Amino acid sequence: MDFTLAQMWQQMGLVAKFVVVALGVMSVVVLAVTAERLVAYARAARQSRAFALAVRELLAQSRFKEASEAAAGYRFSHIAPVVRSGIDEFLLARELSGRGFDVHAAVRGAIERTTERQMASLRKGLSALATVGSTAPFVGLFGTTFGIINSFQGMAKEGGGGLGAVAAGIAEALVTTAVGIGVAIAAVLVYNYFTARIEGLEVDTHETAGEVVALLAREQARG
Fold first, then answer.
1. Cβ atoms within 10 A of the Cβ of 72, count?
2. What radius of gyration do the chain's Cα atoms show?
3. Which residue, 151, 142, 145, 154, is CA-closest to 169?
4. What is the pLDDT of residues 161-171, one digit of tens each?
5. Among the listed ranges 11-15, 49-53, 110-114, which one has the minimum average pLDDT value?
6. I need a labelling partner for 12 at 20 to 30 A (CA). Which of 107, 184, 199, 220 fits?
């Protein structure tokens, strides 16, 4: 027999075919998440740089309401929502500061909550990559096991023996393991790359949050 993909597919059992289809779906998930996250991270970085340039002068001049309105126009930025939440909370809390209300704590709490939401948004889809990376090899091995069982069952029905009688079936069965390992390698590589990207974006977000808290604290001290 020729060891072509079409021939191997015809010789595969039902379980092995199901496993190959499942691995194909997993590979599509990896590609879809990769494409979506690449666009999301590039867009977040681009809009965050633009937002930083646009809002710098407004914050320096204590034009906080205008800065908050400007932040609303950068909805794909991972920094703009953090800055806006701190400014909005500051503007609301400042009115209550004379009643024993802790403006600094309120601003810090709002910024921390928004930062956590932004980080969760940046991690969206990574759990799917981790799941595929950890389970794909085992899914492939599951198909290989049934493929080998089918191979030996076929040999028993034909009454044949020897390596030549089972070599073709075993080769077909091992295809699922190879596909599973390939899908897992791709998923793990992409997952590690995105994790590193998120760590960089997270550092930027925390630094910005700290600067905003300090700026608003100074503004509150000046009255």
1. 10
2. 28
3. 151
4. 555 556 666 77
5. 11-15
6. 184
Task: Decide: 138 and 179 in contact? Cβ < 8 Å.
Answer: no
- Average pLDDT (51-66) is 86
Rounded CA separation 158/27 (Å): 37
Structure tokens at 46: 């681009």
Give the C-alpha distances (Å, rounded to integers) separating 52 from 61, 204, 205: 14, 11, 12
Q: Which residues contact 187 (CB under 8 A, 6 or more apart)?
A: 26, 30, 129, 130, 132, 133, 136
Contact partners, residue 156, CB within 8 Å, separation at least 6: none
pLDDT exceeds cutoff 70 at 137:
yes
162 Rama class: left (phi>0) / alpha (psi -120 to 50) / beta: left
Among the listed residues 7, 37, 14, the one whose alpha carbon sits nearest the alpha carbon of residue 191? 37
Mean pLDDT, range 165-184, rounded to an integer: 78
The answer to whether the beta carbons of residues 183 and 128 sit under 8 Å apart is no
DSSP string of 14-61? HHHHHHHHHHHHHHHHHHHHHHHHHHHHHHHHHHHHHHHHHHHHHHHT
